[in-house]
Amino acid sequence: MTITRRGLIATGAALPFAGAAMAQETHPARAALNAIKPAGYPREPIEMVVVYPAGGGMDITGRVVQRFFERVTGERSFVNNRTGGAGLVGHTWLATQAPSDGHAVGIIANLVISDAARSQGRWQVSDLDHIAHLNAEPLNLMVNADGPFKTGGLRGLLEAARARPGTIRVANVVGGYYEYLIEQLEQASGSRFLKVPFQGGGPGITALLGNNVDLAFGFFAEVRGHMQGNRLLPIAVTGRQPTAFLPETPTVNSVIGRDDVNWGVSRWIAVPKAVPADRKAWLAAAFRAAVADPALVEEFRNLGALPDPALNSPAALNAAVAQMAEAERAYLVASGRVPR
Amino acid sequence: MDPISGLLAGFEVILTWQNIQFIFIGSVIGTLIGVLPGIGPLAALSLLLPATVALPPVGAVAMLCAIFYGSMYGGSITSILVNIPGEAASVVTCLDGYAMAKQGRAGAALGMAALGSFIAGTVGIVVLCLAAPMLGAFAIRMGPPEYAALMLLGLACTILMIQGSALKGAIMIGLGAWLAAIGMDIVTGEFRFTAGSVDLSAGIELLAVVIGLFGVSEILLNVEQSARGMAVKAKLSNLWPTRADWKASWAPILRGTGLGFAIGLLPGGGPVTASFLSYAVERRVGKNPETFGKGRIEGVAGPEAANNAAVSSGMIPLLSLGIPGNAVTALLMGALIINGVQPGPTMMIDRADVFWGVIASLYIGNVFLLVLNLPLVGLWVQLLRVPYAVLFPAILLLALVGTYSANRNLFDLWVMLGFGVVGWALRKFGYELAPLVLAFVLAPLLEQSLRQSMVMSPDGAMIFLQRPLAAVMIAAAVGVLLLVVFKRKTTTLVGGTA
Q: Signal peptide: which range, if any (chain B) (predicted)?
């Protein structure tokens, strides 16, 4: 039943690519990959699960990666959006129901960590094996180019908050990095913001464009067009160093003197823990080869994110995921959300 | 570039043999998915998105757009013929469209739906290319307080829409609002009414609710009636709208176009909301409101025009600002980005070919759809000759496949079947289903914008009076509610019909 159903979807979704994949010349990494390819695998197209809707940032990344995976391996695959519950439905499926024969992989992001916490103990991030890192990007703090905070930067905005507590409107998405970041800014200003809730980063950016909020956070792809149109200005970015896309914009850390304002998105490939080791190794190598392709790096760059060479092995990635989960937990403990 | 030369340049881009083929394919697929219950434009577009990577950007987006507005044309067909909405924006078309079909006027309803869609689509595109940048800039000024006021006005109109017993109508609105509350609370992040279920944490899928309530329940009713040997078979007579139909319909079409255009422009608005509100307005302004639901052509013409106008105007925030107003335009935005085009204020200059090419494609697509749909009216009507014993299992199967394809989630199928039984029972007891669905659509938007307004306002509820547009709409909502109270007092208080 499972095989037939997945096969059916695959035929529909993968057909348009069949021609494109075949037309490509053999990828240089193919020979090395074939040498470690397990016998009799894959025997059907590989399902690449994206837990967010088609057309969004995560989906676009997923589809680019899927295309390069086919180019590198010559195997067929398809992106399947298993959406719902802001990612919870898809993540839960990956961790608890996905076939463990290597025919389903997740194209996921660090948001899986908070979803694991929301799953009420049904599954944990460690139920997945994190096998290949894709890319990462920080959050950009934006203000309206015609608004009251167009000059003065983040420092000016924080001073205004201090002078007039409870008047500055910030677009918030509850239960995640947006909220943590706002809290850190509140601590830095010793003041309170008006946290206007939205169902995602995009609607918050729209509200900023209409001057219905004063500050909003967005990923580069969400704000680039508005920056080019001179409607929005970046005032700071999260992370330890400035981003390559906005080298002039300071980090929040450097403005408010902290070192833990590093919320952003990191995307990678994960499979159920029970997938056989040889299959995992082949998948990991295939995605690594895809991410090493300069053409893919260029596509990532267009989307506003870059690969992280330091996370180039499953061991390094698994350690980094554990570290991210720990950093988030530490923040939740420090902010009193989770008992010590 | 001024609109006229821009549009001419757009036609130059779009009028290649290849692009015309894409638009034609899109129109056909759109009509088909509109006809098929369950599978709506969102599911179809997400299935086809990968296929567009290999296409040139203008052709790809033109095709996807054609699917979107093509589904608005197609959606009315099953609504009218068998009382099963092809997609969510055609729900209200069932009310009068099916009643017309039972009177043998299916052809008139189908023809008017196609013509209304065409007029609205075309007028929408003209306004779109003349005023896109200006209207876009206006639409983003609409903040949470204006939305809250607009949704309040919408809900007030829903109450006006209730035909029979006020109590039953209120129960349906309450039920719709409660069902919509299931899932994650956007202010606190808490789960509401999910009983610890992961499936419910996502909330209940609109598509599954609509197809269940209207489609599955209709099938159940028919099965029941034919088991007792009393199924009503629609008669077939005059295939085309008459002069009287035209006379009755031109004003609703224009009103539907204006209303649909305005609703589609707003982030969060879309064809579904537009069609419901148009129906409520037609019932309000039409003579003899009590005959609505019994085969009034205005009840088909207005909403069908509104949903198409909303599709056209929904392109404005997307193309001129890079802001997708609803899930389908978000998908179109994804398609542009995948094809290397960044939608936004600079797109009109950087990628004028794509901007004007897509707009020009809308003209062509609407002509295709009219040409495609009018001659087919005769063919669609023949569907009624298919025995129900064949037709209904086929529709049920398509509804199952379509609903599953939206999220690939089996749970949605249980929701659909469950709501089929619920809808059957509610109809047996004389409850109207439309207020339930409208509350299901509007209540979350109202809740969200109301709570956003309260958070962003330092002066509490005063924010609704400080913003002129919001204040005007709230005043209108209060006016409508007073009207309801007044009307209910002067006419009979309780009716029992469905």
A: none
* pLDDT the model gives residue A187: 93
**Residue in A with minimal Cα distance to B323:** A206
Q: Which residue has the tokens 């800014």?
A: A185
Rounded Cα gap, residues B22 and A108, in angstroms = 33
In chain A, residues with a C-beta closer than 8 Å to the C-beta of B341 are none
| Alpha carbon of residue B420 to chain centroid | 20
Alpha helices of B182-205 — where are they, by DSSP H?
Answer: 198-201
* Chain B neighbors of A207, CB-CB under 8 A: 143-144
Mark yes or no for CB contact A60/B338 under 8 Å.
Answer: yes
Write the CA distances from B133 to B14, B81, B336, integer angstroms: 21, 40, 19
Position A93: which residue type?
Answer: W
Low-confidence ranges of chain A (pLDDT < 70): 1-25
Q: Could you give the 3-state DSSP secondary structure of residue A327?
A: helix
Q: Coil, strand, or helix at residue A200?
A: coil
Nearest to B344 among A118, A194, A225 (CB): A225
CB-CB neighbors (< 8 A) of A200 in chain B:
none
Q: What is the pLDDT of residue B1?
A: 60
Residue type, A214: D
Residue-level pLDDT at A306: 92
Question: b/e per residue, A13-28, with b = 16+ CB within 10 A?
Answer: bbebbeeebeeeeebe
Three-state SS at B444: helix
B312: nearest Cα among B33, B112, B117, B138? B117
Looking at residue B268, its pLDDT comes to 66
CA distances, B149 to each of B152, B158, B170, B472 (Å): 5, 14, 20, 8
Interface-testing mutation among B45, B354, B408, B411, with chain A (most A C-beta atoms within 10 A):
B408
Find the length of chain B: 498
The verdict on ipTM greater than 0.95 is no
Contacts of B198 in chain A (CB under 8 A): 85, 88-89, 92, 119, 122
pLDDT along chain B (498 residues), means of 10: 81 91 92 79 77 82 90 86 83 89 86 91 86 74 86 78 78 92 82 83 82 86 70 58 88 93 79 87 81 88 93 85 77 80 76 88 91 81 76 83 77 92 92 84 86 89 90 90 75 41
CB B227 within 8 A of CB B275: no
- Give pLDDT, residue B236: 58
Closest among A274, A267, A271, A278 to A305, alpha carbons compared? A267
Contact assessment for residue B329 and residue B314, using Cβ atoms and an 8 Å cutoff: yes
CA atoms within 13 A on the CB side of B38: 24
Backbone angles phi, psi at B398, to 5 degrees: -65, -40
| Structure tokens, B319 | 């193309």
